[in-house]
Amino acid sequence: MDLASLTVVLRTALSPSPEERKVAEESLNQFQHTPQHLVRLLLIIVDGTCDMGVRQVASIHFKNFVAKYWSPHGPGEPHKVSESDKNMVRENILGFIVQVPPLLRFKSDEERTPLYLIIEETFPLLLNVFSKLVQVVNPTIEVADLIKLICKIFWSSIYLEIPRQLFDPSVFGSWMILFLNILERPVPLEGQLTDPEVRKSWGWFGDVKLQRPESKAFAQMFQKNYAGRILGCYLQMLNAVRIGEYLPDRVINLLLQYLGSRVGTSTKEKHSVEMIKNSNLFRIPKNSMYQLLQPQLDIVLFEIVFPLMCFNDDDQKLWSEDPHEYVRKGYDIIEDLYSPRTAAMDFVSELMRKRGKANFQKFIQFIVDVFRRYDEAVEFKPFRQKDGALLAIGTLCDKLKKTEPYKSELECLLMQHVLPEFTSPIGHLRAKAAWVAGQYANINFSDQNIFRRVFHCVIAGFKDPELPVRVDSVFALRAFVEACVGGGKPSSEQSLEEVWQGARLPERNTDLNEIRSILPQLLDEFFKLMNEVENEDLVLTLETIVDRFGEEMAPYAFGLCQNLASAFWRCLNSSESDDDADDSGALAAVGCLRAISTILESVNRLPHLFVQIEPTVLPILQKMLTTDGQDVFEEVLDIVLYLTFYSPTISLEMWSLWPLIMDALSDWAIDFFDSKSLVSHQVTYEPCSLKQSYAYILVPLDKFISRGTSHFLTCKDPDYQQSLWKTLSSIMSDPNIDDADIEPVPKLIEVVFQNCKGQVDHWVEPYLRITIERLRRAERPYLKCLLIAVIADAFYYNPALTLGLLHKLGVAVEVFNLWFQMLQEVKKSGLRANFRREHDKKVCCLGLTSVLGLPADQLPGEAFERVFKATLDLLVSYKDQIAAVQECNPARFQNLTRSLDFHYQALASGVAQHAEQRKVEIEKEKLEKASSE
Predict the structure, then answer these.
(1) Residue 67 lies in a domain
(2) What GO MF terms are annotated (predicted)?
């Protein structure tokens, strides 16, 4: 192939058409071993007139070819690259690298020289301008804009690393003095905007990113000269909160993040911080900074941080005017990045975790005083302070649950200070009570009556007139359901159903039976709420209930799936219709899909329900198995798995998903082909493990073929056999796909041979051909085992046909030699190196015993003897493995044999007798090994 032809082939490899790409790849594979192929690739790579995409394809092909064929990988393997080609590459490679486009090369430190030159030339001028600007008396907005621009330029220069020019203490010090000057200034009157709506759009405070320079000397200099002053500036800025002046939420959030980092590592992932906050990155000793903070810590904690945790005017306005937005903001992780309240909670949590010895008791005493003042107040109760105190108690739940004497007083806390607020006339206190109750639902209650009373209050919150209260009650319910014990009969005459209807709260132990009595009403309230609010946590609570009740959800399964499907479409439509909207709708849509999977899991022993549910979820599957569903592909495949696995039959409507799955697999979904945690498709699937295994595409395709064999074989429009071959052969022959990603292909070929015996003769040769081709270049031992298993399955399918095809391809001796070699390989430990699973041994036994059944004229005596010995070794090894299973887990083995019919029980009994013999031998071997050591 000349240079021009090779260029055309490489360009075709970029075609959007899979057929054209496949033809190009086959041409490359066909001509890649011709003389001077590598040299031609190099010429294309460095050809500046050639299309960049073609050059990139050439470079990838060159890299892969050199990695695979430059030197033989095993003894006796022929050389694929001639010495003349190797010499020509060696002589020219350095010259070619020089010509590689700069965009394709790593930019070394020298490549960054322009940045250093810019800093060297401009920063002295900028510093001079900056110095003059900060001296302007009564600066105009134009001056302020210039100062802001200079600050942004400085920040941009240290975005990835600190330029060496700034390591000069005098230069850096000049900049820091000016920054401190800016920080210490009061906000001018023009910045004290009184209109809250205008404040929201005030764009002077921007997001920036974390820096981590490594210079120890620079960090020490920064710590000594500037860190303390910056801390003082930040405390002064926070004082604005204390005296009621305006400070933007984002600034408060960043300042508290900084203070939290001075007492210990943040409990949450650190987010963007302001340029001057980069001092957090210089490995400043936290003890010294904490000592600087300590004299003012009480003021910060009790007069700044705690008030930020309290319900405020903005909260009240949002609660009253837009409760849906109040709920959204309260559970939006993006809002947390800007929220002063979230930063205050983090600060308290981090302070008590890192410096609890000095601060925990006094903070709890402060909270107790808030509770006392609230209880003592007759006319004007401090409702908002009580809200903040409850938030603090909930924030510190983990520490309070572990620390005495507080740990022993938690039930009293709930009774005295939480339970009464469920009937408060103040809505936000009812909501906060539900939230706090959920935080403590899992403590060990010495008095179960307290648990029951709080639990019933949470249930009653489902009917609260205020939306945020209902939402917080649903979220709290999840914690209580997880904490409930199952079974048992109610011990009181009054049921939870009566509580639901408004009767007096009972005092008796609570278990899941109490939820059972009101389950239909609970589910109705769930879906009413889901119609109002798009929130993932709502669906998570529903998932928890479904998971705990299992098959008891059967009467509600169909209705649940209908409601979840409706909620999914609603969330999806709202997410698609507003590109600027938050992600709550998308997250809720994902949650709906997970909840549907949980329902299907819970009723997997009731296949008739799957027939009812399928039409409801099928439209979702048909849409989301396309590129529209890439973000939820895993969740969608889980549902497909359940429907193909547990439905009485695979319907024609379900078969409409096959082309969608194959298109996705061919185009973009190769990463979803298999899960490494999934056992082989021929091993019995444990129903309870399906959801955890994330079977991806492999198992649904397996089930389509094994459970819908007749339709797979007879349907020609679409032609399922052809589409499977097209996809599998494309993946198997692609040199750019790793061995690990190839592994599902031989597993699916096995499914075809094992389930379509005698009906796919015309596919045996093509599948054997691509199997042997991949086997020759496979490197992973496990993939080699799977490919040999395909050959074994082919013998099981039709031994005479398979042996004839191996002779026709001229690989019969090669295949059997490799097979026997792999069977005999052992590790240093003495364990078998290949075919280690029970399934692998069984497949090899099936294949070899099928070979033994061939007539003598097809299997000569010598070959017969080798196959016979290998079969015996495998059978013994398989029995030993069964014996080991019984040895380590006899209960599992016994349970399995009890579930078999009489014929298989008799067979298993023979294995069990052998296992008993081996058990004695194993014990003897262990004793001998121990004595020799």
Answers:
(1) yes
(2) small GTPase binding
